[in-house]
Amino acid sequence: MQRKNVNSMSDTSIIKAPIKEEMKKFEPFFKEQLKSKIPLLDIITNYVLRRKGKQMRPMLVFLSAKLNGEITDASYISATLIELLHTATLIHDDVVDETYQRRGFFSINALWKSKIAVLVGDFFLSKGLSLSLETGQIDVLKVVSNAVTEMSEGELIQIEKSRKLDITEEVYYDIIRKKTATLIAACTKAGALSVNADEQKISNMAHFGENLGVAFQIRDDLFDYEQNGLIGKPTGNDIKEKKLTLPLIHSLHKTDKKQRRKILTLIRRHHKNEKKVQEIIAFVKANGGLEYANAQMEMYAQRAVDSLASYDDSEVKTALIKMVDYTLKRKK
Question: In the CATH hierarchy, which fold is given to the domain comprising 3-329?
Fold first, then answer.
Protein backbone atom coordinates (compact mmCIF):
# COMPACT_ATOMS: atom_id res chain seq x y z
CA MET A 1 0.00 0.00 0.00
CA GLN A 2 1.35 3.41 -0.95
CA ARG A 3 1.31 6.18 1.66
CA LYS A 4 -0.48 8.58 -0.71
CA ASN A 5 -3.67 6.47 -0.53
CA VAL A 6 -4.65 7.60 2.95
CA ASN A 7 -7.55 10.05 3.18
CA SER A 8 -7.48 13.81 3.58
CA MET A 9 -8.22 14.15 7.32
CA SER A 10 -5.48 15.73 9.44
CA ASP A 11 -2.57 13.46 10.33
CA THR A 12 -3.08 13.63 14.08
CA SER A 13 -6.83 12.99 13.86
CA ILE A 14 -6.30 9.84 11.82
CA ILE A 15 -3.50 8.60 14.09
CA LYS A 16 -5.39 9.15 17.34
CA ALA A 17 -8.88 8.11 16.22
CA PRO A 18 -8.59 4.30 16.75
CA ILE A 19 -6.99 4.65 20.20
CA LYS A 20 -8.67 7.78 21.53
CA GLU A 21 -10.22 6.02 24.53
CA GLU A 22 -7.08 4.03 25.30
CA MET A 23 -4.96 7.18 25.40
CA LYS A 24 -7.48 8.80 27.78
CA LYS A 25 -7.20 5.83 30.14
CA PHE A 26 -3.43 5.74 29.76
CA GLU A 27 -2.89 9.20 31.26
CA PRO A 28 -4.11 8.40 34.80
CA PHE A 29 -2.60 4.91 34.63
CA PHE A 30 0.82 6.35 33.83
CA LYS A 31 0.53 9.04 36.48
CA GLU A 32 -0.38 6.44 39.12
CA GLN A 33 2.94 4.63 38.56
CA LEU A 34 4.89 7.76 39.50
CA LYS A 35 3.41 8.37 42.93
CA SER A 36 6.01 8.85 45.65
CA LYS A 37 6.20 9.71 49.35
CA ILE A 38 9.03 12.15 48.60
CA PRO A 39 7.58 15.68 48.13
CA LEU A 40 10.44 16.87 45.90
CA LEU A 41 10.04 13.83 43.65
CA ASP A 42 6.29 14.47 43.34
CA ILE A 43 6.95 18.10 42.35
CA ILE A 44 9.44 17.06 39.67
CA THR A 45 7.33 14.22 38.26
CA ASN A 46 4.30 16.52 38.04
CA TYR A 47 6.47 19.01 36.15
CA VAL A 48 7.56 16.23 33.77
CA LEU A 49 3.94 15.16 33.20
CA ARG A 50 2.83 18.72 32.42
CA ARG A 51 5.44 19.15 29.68
CA LYS A 52 5.07 15.79 27.95
CA GLY A 53 5.11 15.84 24.16
CA LYS A 54 2.88 14.13 21.61
CA GLN A 55 3.33 10.70 23.25
CA MET A 56 4.19 9.06 19.95
CA ARG A 57 5.60 5.97 21.67
CA PRO A 58 2.55 4.99 23.75
CA MET A 59 0.40 5.61 20.67
CA LEU A 60 2.56 3.18 18.69
CA VAL A 61 2.20 0.54 21.42
CA PHE A 62 -1.61 0.82 21.37
CA LEU A 63 -1.86 0.97 17.57
CA SER A 64 0.36 -2.10 17.21
CA ALA A 65 -1.66 -3.93 19.88
CA LYS A 66 -4.99 -3.04 18.24
CA LEU A 67 -3.78 -4.02 14.77
CA ASN A 68 -2.92 -7.48 16.11
CA GLY A 69 -5.75 -8.15 18.57
CA GLU A 70 -7.76 -6.75 21.47
CA ILE A 71 -6.00 -4.30 23.79
CA THR A 72 -5.35 -5.79 27.23
CA ASP A 73 -3.96 -4.69 30.61
CA ALA A 74 -0.61 -5.87 29.27
CA SER A 75 -0.87 -3.23 26.53
CA TYR A 76 -1.21 -0.47 29.14
CA ILE A 77 1.72 -1.86 31.09
CA SER A 78 3.82 -2.06 27.92
CA ALA A 79 3.00 1.53 26.97
CA THR A 80 3.81 2.69 30.51
CA LEU A 81 7.10 0.81 30.59
CA ILE A 82 8.16 2.30 27.25
CA GLU A 83 7.16 5.82 28.30
CA LEU A 84 9.01 5.51 31.63
CA LEU A 85 12.13 4.37 29.81
CA HIS A 86 11.84 7.08 27.18
CA THR A 87 11.38 9.80 29.79
CA ALA A 88 14.36 8.51 31.80
CA THR A 89 16.60 8.60 28.72
CA LEU A 90 15.51 12.15 27.86
CA ILE A 91 16.29 13.35 31.39
CA HIS A 92 19.71 11.68 31.31
CA ASP A 93 20.40 12.97 27.77
CA ASP A 94 19.77 16.55 28.93
CA VAL A 95 22.40 16.06 31.64
CA VAL A 96 24.94 14.50 29.25
CA ASP A 97 24.38 17.17 26.59
CA GLU A 98 24.12 20.00 29.15
CA THR A 99 20.77 20.94 27.61
CA TYR A 100 18.73 23.47 29.55
CA GLN A 101 15.59 23.56 27.46
CA ARG A 102 13.42 20.94 25.74
CA ARG A 103 10.31 21.80 23.70
CA GLY A 104 10.34 25.32 25.12
CA PHE A 105 10.44 24.17 28.77
CA PHE A 106 13.37 24.20 31.16
CA SER A 107 15.00 20.78 31.58
CA ILE A 108 15.15 19.04 34.97
CA ASN A 109 18.89 19.73 35.26
CA ALA A 110 18.30 23.42 34.54
CA LEU A 111 15.83 23.75 37.41
CA TRP A 112 17.11 21.22 39.95
CA LYS A 113 20.74 20.63 38.85
CA SER A 114 22.34 17.54 37.32
CA LYS A 115 22.60 15.35 40.43
CA ILE A 116 18.85 15.47 41.06
CA ALA A 117 18.12 15.05 37.33
CA VAL A 118 20.18 11.84 37.19
CA LEU A 119 18.40 10.47 40.27
CA VAL A 120 14.97 11.34 38.84
CA GLY A 121 15.91 9.56 35.59
CA ASP A 122 16.96 6.54 37.65
CA PHE A 123 13.61 6.69 39.50
CA PHE A 124 11.67 6.56 36.20
CA LEU A 125 13.78 3.65 34.98
CA SER A 126 13.43 1.69 38.23
CA LYS A 127 9.66 2.26 38.25
CA GLY A 128 9.49 0.69 34.81
CA LEU A 129 11.51 -2.32 35.90
CA SER A 130 9.40 -2.78 39.04
CA LEU A 131 6.14 -2.53 37.10
CA SER A 132 7.17 -5.16 34.56
CA LEU A 133 8.32 -7.58 37.30
CA GLU A 134 5.24 -7.03 39.47
CA THR A 135 2.93 -7.75 36.54
CA GLY A 136 4.95 -10.60 35.07
CA GLN A 137 5.63 -8.81 31.76
CA ILE A 138 9.01 -10.50 31.30
CA ASP A 139 8.89 -10.65 27.49
CA VAL A 140 8.25 -6.91 27.29
CA LEU A 141 10.99 -6.29 29.86
CA LYS A 142 13.43 -8.22 27.63
CA VAL A 143 12.46 -6.07 24.63
CA VAL A 144 12.89 -2.84 26.58
CA SER A 145 16.14 -3.95 28.26
CA ASN A 146 17.60 -4.71 24.84
CA ALA A 147 16.54 -1.23 23.69
CA VAL A 148 18.30 0.38 26.68
CA THR A 149 21.49 -1.54 25.92
CA GLU A 150 21.47 -0.56 22.25
CA MET A 151 20.67 3.08 22.98
CA SER A 152 23.66 3.31 25.32
CA GLU A 153 25.91 1.64 22.76
CA GLY A 154 24.71 3.99 20.01
CA GLU A 155 25.39 7.06 22.13
CA LEU A 156 28.90 5.88 22.97
CA ILE A 157 29.71 5.06 19.32
CA GLN A 158 28.54 8.53 18.29
CA ILE A 159 30.68 10.22 20.95
CA GLU A 160 33.72 8.21 19.86
CA LYS A 161 33.16 8.95 16.17
CA SER A 162 32.58 12.66 16.84
CA ARG A 163 36.10 12.83 18.20
CA LYS A 164 37.63 11.04 15.22
CA LEU A 165 35.27 12.40 12.52
CA ASP A 166 35.47 9.11 10.64
CA ILE A 167 31.80 8.11 10.39
CA THR A 168 30.88 6.14 7.27
CA GLU A 169 27.32 5.71 6.06
CA GLU A 170 27.35 2.15 7.43
CA VAL A 171 28.41 3.37 10.88
CA TYR A 172 25.83 6.18 10.74
CA TYR A 173 23.00 3.68 10.21
CA ASP A 174 24.36 1.50 13.02
CA ILE A 175 24.27 4.53 15.35
CA ILE A 176 20.75 5.68 14.49
CA ARG A 177 19.35 2.14 14.61
CA LYS A 178 20.72 1.82 18.13
CA LYS A 179 19.99 5.38 19.35
CA THR A 180 16.54 5.94 17.84
CA ALA A 181 15.08 3.06 15.86
CA THR A 182 15.51 0.42 18.55
CA LEU A 183 13.15 2.19 20.96
CA ILE A 184 10.48 2.78 18.31
CA ALA A 185 10.80 -0.88 17.27
CA ALA A 186 10.40 -1.80 20.96
CA CYS A 187 7.07 0.10 21.00
CA THR A 188 5.57 -1.75 18.06
CA LYS A 189 7.02 -5.12 19.08
CA ALA A 190 5.79 -4.71 22.68
CA GLY A 191 2.33 -3.80 21.43
CA ALA A 192 2.10 -7.00 19.41
CA LEU A 193 3.49 -9.04 22.31
CA SER A 194 0.90 -7.60 24.67
CA VAL A 195 -1.95 -9.19 22.68
CA ASN A 196 -0.15 -12.52 22.15
CA ALA A 197 0.37 -12.05 18.42
CA ASP A 198 2.17 -14.83 16.54
CA GLU A 199 5.91 -14.72 15.74
CA GLN A 200 5.42 -13.47 12.18
CA LYS A 201 3.23 -10.57 13.25
CA ILE A 202 5.63 -9.63 16.05
CA SER A 203 8.45 -9.64 13.49
CA ASN A 204 6.40 -7.51 11.06
CA MET A 205 5.72 -4.92 13.76
CA ALA A 206 9.37 -4.85 14.83
CA HIS A 207 10.39 -4.19 11.22
CA PHE A 208 7.76 -1.48 10.92
CA GLY A 209 9.08 0.25 14.04
CA GLU A 210 12.73 -0.02 13.06
CA ASN A 211 12.20 1.44 9.59
CA LEU A 212 9.97 4.18 10.98
CA GLY A 213 12.69 4.96 13.53
CA VAL A 214 15.39 5.29 10.88
CA ALA A 215 13.16 7.61 8.81
CA PHE A 216 12.37 9.60 11.97
CA GLN A 217 16.08 10.16 12.72
CA ILE A 218 16.96 11.17 9.16
CA ARG A 219 14.14 13.73 9.38
CA ASP A 220 15.73 15.02 12.59
CA ASP A 221 19.08 15.31 10.83
CA LEU A 222 17.54 17.35 8.03
CA PHE A 223 16.26 19.97 10.48
CA ASP A 224 19.86 21.12 10.89
CA TYR A 225 19.90 22.32 7.29
CA GLU A 226 16.49 23.96 7.14
CA GLN A 227 15.79 27.65 7.65
CA ASN A 228 15.01 28.58 11.23
CA GLY A 229 12.05 30.93 11.50
CA LEU A 230 13.62 33.00 14.26
CA ILE A 231 17.09 33.58 12.83
CA GLY A 232 16.33 33.10 9.15
CA LYS A 233 19.05 30.49 8.51
CA PRO A 234 19.81 26.85 9.31
CA THR A 235 20.91 26.17 12.89
CA GLY A 236 23.72 23.70 12.16
CA ASN A 237 23.44 22.36 15.72
CA ASP A 238 24.77 18.90 14.82
CA ILE A 239 27.78 20.47 13.11
CA LYS A 240 28.43 22.60 16.19
CA GLU A 241 28.50 19.37 18.22
CA LYS A 242 30.75 17.72 15.59
CA LYS A 243 28.10 15.13 14.73
CA LEU A 244 28.39 13.80 11.20
CA THR A 245 24.89 13.02 9.94
CA LEU A 246 23.71 11.55 6.63
CA PRO A 247 23.58 14.74 4.47
CA LEU A 248 27.15 15.64 5.45
CA ILE A 249 28.51 12.07 5.25
CA HIS A 250 27.14 11.68 1.71
CA SER A 251 28.53 15.07 0.62
CA LEU A 252 31.98 14.27 2.01
CA HIS A 253 31.94 10.94 0.18
CA LYS A 254 31.11 12.65 -3.13
CA THR A 255 33.79 15.33 -3.05
CA ASP A 256 37.56 15.13 -3.70
CA LYS A 257 40.19 14.58 -1.00
CA LYS A 258 41.24 18.22 -0.85
CA GLN A 259 37.72 19.52 -0.31
CA ARG A 260 36.97 16.72 2.15
CA ARG A 261 40.06 17.61 4.18
CA LYS A 262 39.05 21.27 4.19
CA ILE A 263 35.51 20.56 5.43
CA LEU A 264 36.71 18.16 8.12
CA THR A 265 39.19 20.78 9.31
CA LEU A 266 36.38 23.34 9.56
CA ILE A 267 34.33 20.90 11.63
CA ARG A 268 37.25 19.97 13.84
CA ARG A 269 38.58 23.49 14.50
CA HIS A 270 35.77 25.94 13.72
CA HIS A 271 32.54 24.11 14.61
CA LYS A 272 31.57 26.92 16.99
CA ASN A 273 32.10 29.63 14.35
CA GLU A 274 28.70 30.57 12.91
CA LYS A 275 30.14 31.73 9.58
CA LYS A 276 32.11 28.50 9.13
CA VAL A 277 29.08 26.41 10.07
CA GLN A 278 27.04 28.14 7.35
CA GLU A 279 29.89 27.43 4.93
CA ILE A 280 29.65 23.71 5.76
CA ILE A 281 25.87 23.81 5.29
CA ALA A 282 26.34 25.46 1.88
CA PHE A 283 28.80 22.69 0.94
CA VAL A 284 26.25 20.01 1.85
CA LYS A 285 23.52 21.71 -0.17
CA ALA A 286 25.81 22.14 -3.19
CA ASN A 287 26.79 18.46 -3.16
CA GLY A 288 23.31 16.96 -3.06
CA GLY A 289 23.41 15.93 0.59
CA LEU A 290 19.85 17.01 1.34
CA GLU A 291 18.36 15.35 -1.74
CA TYR A 292 20.17 12.10 -0.92
CA ALA A 293 19.04 12.11 2.73
CA ASN A 294 15.45 12.84 1.69
CA ALA A 295 15.51 9.93 -0.75
CA GLN A 296 16.85 7.59 1.95
CA MET A 297 14.21 8.81 4.39
CA GLU A 298 11.47 8.09 1.84
CA MET A 299 12.92 4.62 1.20
CA TYR A 300 12.83 3.66 4.89
CA ALA A 301 9.36 5.15 5.25
CA GLN A 302 8.11 2.96 2.39
CA ARG A 303 9.78 -0.08 3.96
CA ALA A 304 7.82 0.64 7.14
CA VAL A 305 4.56 0.77 5.17
CA ASP A 306 5.47 -2.42 3.30
CA SER A 307 5.79 -4.22 6.65
CA LEU A 308 2.02 -3.80 7.03
CA ALA A 309 1.17 -5.38 3.65
CA SER A 310 -0.14 -8.63 5.15
CA TYR A 311 -2.77 -6.81 7.23
CA ASP A 312 -6.25 -6.06 5.92
CA ASP A 313 -7.09 -2.40 5.41
CA SER A 314 -8.53 -0.87 8.57
CA GLU A 315 -8.71 2.34 10.58
CA VAL A 316 -5.72 1.17 12.65
CA LYS A 317 -3.60 0.30 9.61
CA THR A 318 -4.42 3.69 8.10
CA ALA A 319 -3.39 5.36 11.37
CA LEU A 320 0.01 3.62 11.30
CA ILE A 321 0.57 4.65 7.68
CA LYS A 322 -0.39 8.19 8.61
CA MET A 323 2.13 8.03 11.46
CA VAL A 324 4.78 7.40 8.83
CA ASP A 325 3.58 10.41 6.82
CA TYR A 326 3.51 12.58 9.91
CA THR A 327 7.10 11.59 10.75
CA LEU A 328 8.31 12.79 7.36
CA LYS A 329 6.34 16.04 7.34
CA ARG A 330 6.84 17.17 10.94
CA LYS A 331 8.53 20.52 11.55
CA LYS A 332 10.20 19.73 14.90
Answer: Farnesyl Diphosphate Synthase (1.10.600)
Please, which pLDDT band fits residue 35 given cuts at 50, 70 and 90?
confident
Give Cβ neighbours of residue 270 (< 8 Å, ≥ 6 apart): 276, 277
What pLDDT was estimated at residue 7? 43
151 near 179, Cβ under 8 Å?
Answer: yes
Q: Where are the domains of the chain?
A: 3-329
Which pLDDT value is given to residue 160?
A: 83
The CA distance from 25 to 307, in Å, is: 29
- A 10 A CB-CB count for 130 gives 13
